[in-house]
Amino acid sequence: MKQNYVISCCSASDLTLELIQKLDLEMLCFHLTLDGVQYSDDLGQTLNIDHFYEEMAAGKMTKTSQIGIGEYMDHFEKYLAAGQDVLHITLSSGISGTYNSATAAAQVLHSQYPDRRLVVMDSLAASSGYGLLMAGICQERDKGATLDELIAYVERERLHLNHWFFSTDLQYYVRGGRISKASGFVGGLLNICPLLNVNKEGRLIPRTKCRGKRKAIETIVQRMEEHARDGHDYDGPVYLSQSACREDAEAVVNLIRDRFPKVGEISIFNIGALIGAHTGPGTVALFFWGDERGE
User: Fold this and answer.
1) CB of 104 within 8 A of CB of 136?
2) pLDDT attached to residue 2
3) pLDDT tens for residues 5-27?
4) CA quadruple 54, 281, 9, 92: dihedral sign
5) Which of 56, 150, 217, 287 measures 20 to 30 Å from 141, CA to CA?
6) CA proximity to 292, closest of 210, 172, 197
7) Cα–Cα distance between 170 and 194 in angstroms, integer?
């Protein structure tokens, strides 16, 4: 029986347009500016993602902007006016203010559509980790879950979604003010690849420094060994996202297949322009279901 609600997310879930459509998800797009030209972060439809990273590598400046309250209101009202309820999951509030914007829009619309339900939830996730959570929600919907059951699923599972990622080029972290120029200079000389994860508040936290890319690839898979649900018997899906370094992502995949013989589907996605504008090319992110995230 088809439920009378829609599930919605934003483009920062870093899935493909084909998968968004297959999952029957509704989507809003963030905005970005590349070298003074404005684009929609619409999964590569108007701005080819390979070209985007080539331009970044050439030194072109990028700027991102979140989805506005008015955009959220227009998006939600389409479904409310058609007699449907809405469950919208946002990019982590630890990374973006978009949760606050979506919540503000929902508060306005609640009084206009008192007979409808509009629920906004914080994913506490980012990139294709956010995408993996959306895929899980849609799987529950397809099993016949009610809206309340989906809300409970998100509350129960979102902190079990593990995020680990490393970057091989620190200049974009320096440019964005995430690390100092001195640290970036020294890190570049020593070939340092920082390994980060997302904590229980949905914030990016540096965890360790790996000397060289090979060490970073080894270490990120070690973190999966330590934290994956059922350890080496993990049989769930694995998502990766990458920014113009697919060979590095494939090296991670090969190592996972060697160490997790029961692993389910492994998918590699592009890090979209919204997240990529801050990480730059050279980032690999790994997402899987595991133990509950800590501080």
Assistant:
1) no
2) 65
3) 999 999 999 999 999 999 999 99
4) negative
5) 287
6) 197
7) 9
Q: What is the pLDDT of residues 98-131, one digit of tens each?
A: 999 999 999 999 999 999 999 999 999 999 999 9
- pLDDT tens for 32-83 read 999 999 999 999 899 999 999 999 989 999 999 999 999 999 999 999 999 9
The single-letter code of the amino acid at 50 is D
Q: Which CATH number fits domain 160-289: 3.40.50.300, 3.30.1180.10, 3.40.50.12780, 1.20.210.10?
A: 3.30.1180.10
Structural domain spans, the chain? 5-159, 160-289
Q: What is the largest CA-CA distance in the chain?
A: 61
Provide the pLDDT for residue 295. 86
How far apart are alpha carbons 58 and 56 in whole angstroms? 5
Rounded-to-integer distance, Cα 251 and Cα 32, Å: 30
Decide: helix, strand or coil at residue 138: helix
Encode pLDDT of 158-186 as tens digits: 999 999 999 987 666 555 555 544 344 34
Helix axis angle for 98-112 and 69-81, nearest 10°, is: 40
H/E element holding 73? helix 69-81
Alpha-carbon gap, residue 282 to 288, rounded angstroms? 20
Which helix (H) or strand (E) covers residue 101, if one does? Answer: helix 98-112
